[in-house]
Design brief:
The chain is mostly helical. The chain has 18 helices and three strands. About 75% of the residues lie in helices and about 5% in strands.
Length: about 425
């Protein structure tokens, strides 16, 4: 065998490997790649403050690239898993998440006024991220299972109790994430055709509890909260921050006169960044407000994108997330199982709703929440799990493609092709 033949054979094997690895919906892959490119482009600019703190130009950027590489590997591994494995891992990760969510209360790392981080073996991460992922997987599985149960009443309230329990543990430190996750679960249940009266009853109960907590924070004096030995008040101490943000958001005087103080500092500088954007791109590195926004590389990176790359790039970023949502809806329609449909809708909603909450905060439509922009903002844990979400979406699209191949194989099957058909069945599941 000549060297040319070996070269052609190795090239053929490599191309086949790449094609096999990058199977699935091409549109989803394109959206993922574009968001990644925007992330790299803006991270060079928005992380200037981190560069100053670390005294290293390459350090923050290299960290972001490494986490993205790890996330991409996780994406490739997830899209190779069987749905049986995804279901089982969902329950296991959810159980582990409950333990991890209790950990920040005892030994959590306080960041931005909230102990929502934990550190294990030097690795710092948010336990709410695996909780979001696992709860979506578990709810997709349970809703499908409940379709075949005649008496759903008892099981429904057990499932809803688990949902409320998970969201409650997230709620004490991350209000917006808990509300976001509960809303996604409710949407998944509506799509799964659960009894709407039960769903509305559960929603009313949760809204009532939130209203009571906010009312307590509103009327009870600050010194009572901060000096109290009551474990309940200690746990709900951060609700004072939520109420303060709502009050500041509703204060038209500060917004209209642009009086910058501690309460509206981030929101006003984000609006200034967007106002500087205009219609002509200034280019990466031209941002002024990145030097004033403390979380320009994460919580307000959309404002930096508009400031540096113009209003049109901001529209394009929003279009990418909407494109992903519409694509996920199409994938869900083509799915042959309720689990696949709910899974792809659930993980897509986690990405898209989080993105639009981030954008809404940047343009001052809602109070500051601290939600990163998926796949674009800096953040190891968030970046890793967003890659996993894309991996699950791609896994479902691969399943649909394999089902189509299986159908074609069955239509033209013969005794000689029975082995190939069996292989396709195994791959599809």
């Amino acid at each position: 065998m000549t060297i040319d033949c070996l070269h052609e054979q190795s090239e053929h094997i490599m191309n086949k490997f790449i094609a096999k690895t990058l199977e699935g919906d091409k549109v989803v892959w394109i959206i993922f790649a574009l968001l990644f490119l925007i992330s790299l482009l803006e991270m060079f600019s928005a992380s200037s403050r981190l560069v100053y703190w670390s005294s290293s130009v390459q350090g923050p950027i290299l960290r972001h690239v490494i986490f993205f590489a790890v996330g991409f590997v996780a994406l490739l591994l997830v899209q190779l898993l069987s749905f049986r494995a995804i279901r089982r891992w969902g329950y296991f990760i959810l159980f582990c998440s409950w333990i991890l969510l209790m950990y920040p209360t005892l030994r959590g790392i306080e960041q931005a006024g909230a102990a929502r981080w934990i550190s294990i073996a030097g690795f710092k991460f948010q336990p709410s991220e695996p909780a979001k992922l696992s709860l979506v997987v578990v709810i997709a599985d349970l809703v499908e299972r409940m379709q075949n149960i005649e008496r759903q009443n008892k099981l429904f309230w057990i499932v809803m109790g688990g949902v409320v329990f998970t969201c409650a543990m997230i709620f004490t430190e991350n209000f917006s994430t808990a509300v976001l996750l509960f809303g996604i679960v409710i949407i998944m249940m509506f799509i799964g055709e659960m009894q709407w009266r039960k769903i509305l009853t559960a929603c009313a109960g949760v809204v009532g509890i939130i209203a009571i907590i906010l009312a307590m924070a509103w009327f009870i004096p600050d010194d009572v909260y901060y000096s109290s030995e009551s474990p309940v008040l200690k746990k709900l101490e951060r609700s004072k921050t939520w109420v303060a943000r709502i009050q500041n958001f509703a204060n038209d005087e500060n917004v209209s006169k642009y009086k910058i103080n501690d309460s509206n500092y981030q929101a006003n500088h984000a609006q200034m960044a967007i106002a500087r954007g205009g219609f002509i791109p200034k280019g990466p590195g031209s941002s002024v407000e990145r030097n004033y926004l403390p979380e320009a590389f994460s919580d307000f990176i959309f404002a930096i994108i508009v400031e540096e790359l113009s209003f049109f790039m901001g529209i394009f970023v929003m279009f990418l997330y909407l494109w992903l949502l519409f694509r996920a809806g199409r994938v869900a329609q083509q799915s042959d199982s309720l689990f696949c449909a709910l899974l792809v809708i659930g993980v897509t909603l986690v990405i898209v709703l989080q993105a639009f909450i981030h954008i809404a905060v940047s343009v001052h439509l809602i109070p500051v929440t601290g939600q990163p922009l998926p796949l674009i903002s800096r953040g190891g844990t968030s970046l890793l799990f967003n890659c996993i979400y894309f991996g699950l979406i791609i896994r479902v699209t691969k399943h649909i493609q394999l089902q189509k191949k299986l159908k074609q194989s069955v239509e033209s099957t013969s005794d000689s092709s029975s082995v190939q058909t069996t292989e396709l069945v195994e791959m599809a599941n």
